[in-house]
Amino acid sequence: MVCRATLVERGVRVGEIFHDATGVFHHAGTADRVPRPAPDRRSYGSFMSMTDPEGNEWVVQEITQRIPGRITQASYGARADLASALRAAAAAHGAHEGRLGHEDANWPEWYADYLLNEQLGQPLPG
C-alpha cells in the first residue's frame, strides 16, 4: 500500500500489511491476522495497523474500488490525481464528440458528470 510507505517515510511506526484468515476483519486483537495483502486484493480486504503516541491502535483498510453509494461527493487528494482524472475525461469527451459528429457546447456539464460519476462508481456519460 502506498499509504503505508508514505507513513513509514514520515517516521510513523506502522505494522506490516495483513488480511484476516476469516475473510472479514471485525474484531479486536491480532488473532486470525495473516501477514501479507489479501490474496485477491479485493477492496476492504487488506489492512495495516499503527499505534499513536497515546497508545490508541488504528487500523486502515485498503480500498481498491469503492462500493457504489459510499462516496457522495468528488474529492481529489493530490494535484496529480485530478490531472489524471482530467486526462481520462478529455479522452472520453473526445470520443463523445466523435460520436456526436460536432463540438459539444455543454462540455462543462459533461466533464462535471464524468468526474463525479467516476469517483462515485456510477456509469460514465457516453
Describe the structure.
The protein has 126 residues and is an alpha+beta fold. It folds into two domains: 2-61, no CATH class; 79-120. Helix content is 35%, strand content 13%. It has three helices and four strands, in the order αββββαα. The strands form two sheets. A two-stranded antiparallel ribbon has the order 1-2. The longest helix is centred in the last third of the chain and has 22 residues, at 79-100. The two termini are 33 Å apart. The relative contact order is 0.12. The mean pLDDT is 86.
The biggest sheet, with number of strands, parallel, antiparallel or mixed sense and barrel status, is: 2 strands, antiparallel
**Count of extended strands:** 4
Number of structurally distinct domains? 2
CA radius of gyration: 20 Å
- List the helices and strands in order: HEEEEHH
Provide the β-strand percentage band. 5-15%
Principal-axes geometry comes out as elongated
* First-residue to last-residue Cα separation: 33 Å
Q: Figure out the total of helices.
A: 3
The helical percent reads: 25-40%
What is the structural class? alpha+beta
Average pLDDT metric: 86
Q: Order of strands in the sheet with the most strands? A: 1-2
Unreliable stretches (pLDDT < 50, length at least 5) are none
Summarize the structure.
This is VOC domain-containing protein. The protein has 126 residues and is α+β, with helices and mostly antiparallel strands.
